[in-house]
Amino acid sequence: MSDIKFGTDGWRGRIAEDYTFANVRRCAHGFAQYILARAPKGKKPTVVIGHDKRFQSEDFAAAAAEVLAANGIKVWLTDGATPTPTIAFAVIAKGALGAINITASHNPPQDNGFKVRGSTGGAVDPEGLKEIEANIPAPNQPVPTLDFDAAVKKGLIERFDPSAEYIQQLKRLVKVKPIKDAGLKIVVDAMWGNGAGWLPRLIGGGKTVLHEIHNTRNPIFPEMRRPEPIPPNVDVGLRTTKQLGYDACCITDGDADRCGFGDENGRFINQLWVYGLLALYLLEIRGKRGAIVKTLSTTSMLEKLGKLYNVPVFETGVGFKYVAPKMLETQAMIGGEESGGFAFGGHVPERDGILANLFLLDFMVQTGKKPSELVELLFEKVGPHYYDRIDTPIDAAKREAIKAKLAQAQPSRIAGVEVVGKNMTDGYKFLLADGGWLLIRMSGTEPLMRVYCETTKKKLVRAILEEGTRLAQV
Predict the structure, then answer these.
(1) Are strands 386-393 and 448-455 parallel, antiparallel or unpaired?
(2) Helix (H) or strand (E) holding 449
(3) Distance CA 13, CA 108 (A)
């Protein structure tokens, strides 16, 4: 058993290698101590536990529940695979002190994960994650457990369906009837994950037609490398949209906290454009005003929208362990990151791929525009912006050498564009004179180096990424 470290979004590992029942129980015990330290005196602490559709996720969730029950914590255990935002909202609905979510989100099929959430339903901050890690027992130490059936009889584990309260919340946040009656034709790609059935349930049964694919349980995720809502994983959904002549493709990742979107031509609308569209929708169509929170890996279009609509924009490190606390601090209107995860004010400070897709569909309905026309509308406001990313597997032995080289790097130009600044808040971000940027950082969830860029000049995208890859070579 290896040491357990919580990265950008909890702990993830390879099933049967380091992601084992014993290690899940150790994590659950560490989280139990974190919860007990925050439990009001005289009141039984409660926690929500849910899971995705990966191999044995429901069994790992039950194992975690047995550990919390042994620590005297009441567990509300979802009665099936449940979207991450639904689990997050259940924390609020049940008055719980936090949640455990057994999911590896968008990781390859061999992986599983252990996400933790606090009493707001949002990510636990970095200091809280350190506290949980510190409370994880050593591999040779016993972990208390209570037999599942015995815990149920004692009322310490109770299964429940969290869907009704979550659906009521969504209907408070967006009017679904106009979308249902709009006569749109939508392909829905659930990526074999927890989002399956949710959009048909919310906006089906009217004039709008929904064609859902990849909507059963299949832990090997056929027709994609992984349930991450970016090409080439979404190519089947995009191709289906074009072949059917439909209006849009709505995509949710493996645990339905991330949003992908495709236009009427079967073209992928990348995550940075989607963030710009969601912010513009809230500002222009819904007339909302409030802070925008963004990670440093996402679009500079947000700063431009902030100036146009006179709202503040705050930048954080990568991951909702930074975004969620900042959203709460600033009472933000929206928060998000490059990975396609977006959270919204008036909701829980947690990514919600289902709600994000509903907002994009409502944007279409309210404006009468196709998705490609919405992108044009965004560019009319802030100018064209282009983005791409390269992910490269890295040898752990080279990780520190790469970081040391990047820390010393001081290029004067990248792809012929002057470098005007460097940001090392989370990785190594080089700011370019044209308003673009290059970012190189190590993934917090996988053994990957990610090279990202955004530029106002489409022809420079590939050159910037290639130069970033060369900068990191050791």
Answers:
(1) antiparallel
(2) strand 448-455
(3) 10
Domain segments of the chain as ranges: 11-165, 174-382, 386-471
What CATH number does the domain located at 386-471 have?
3.30.310.50
What pTM was computed for the model?
0.94
| Predicted confidence band of residue 9 (pLDDT cuts 50, 70, 90) | confident
Q: How far apart are CA 202 and CA 256, in angstroms?
A: 15
* Closest C-alpha to 282, from 342, 175, 363: 363
Number of CB atoms found within 10 A of residue 463's CB = 16
455 neighbors 446 (Cβ within 8 angstroms): no
- 328 phi, psi to nearest 5 deg: -65, -40
Task: Say how far apart CA 258 and CA 138 lie, in whole Å.
Answer: 34
Under CATH, what is the fold of the domain 174-382?
Answer: Alpha-D-Glucose-1,6-Bisphosphate; Chain A, domain 3 (3.40.120)
pLDDT at 420: 97
Query: Taking a C-beta distance cutoff of 8 angstroms, is the pair 295, 337 a contact?
Result: yes
pLDDT at 275: 98
Token representation of residue 182: 């709009």
Distance CA 199, CA 206 (A): 12
Matching CATH topology for 174-382 and 386-471? no
Contacts for 135 with CB less than 8 Å, ≥ 6 apart: 29, 30, 31, 33, 34
Report pLDDT digits (tens) over 200-223: 999 999 999 999 999 999 999 999
Q: β-pairing, 209-213 with 111-117? A: unpaired
Return the pLDDT at 434: 87
Which pLDDT belongs to residue 1?
40
Mean pLDDT of the chain: 96
The order of strands in the sheet holding 259-262 is: 209-213, 185-189, 248-252, 259-262, 268-269
Cβ neighbours of residue 470 under 8 Å, at least 6 residues apart? none
Please name the residue that has the structure tokens 């935002």. Answer: 85
In CATH terms, the fold of domain 11-165 is Alpha-D-Glucose-1,6-Bisphosphate; Chain A, domain 3 (3.40.120)
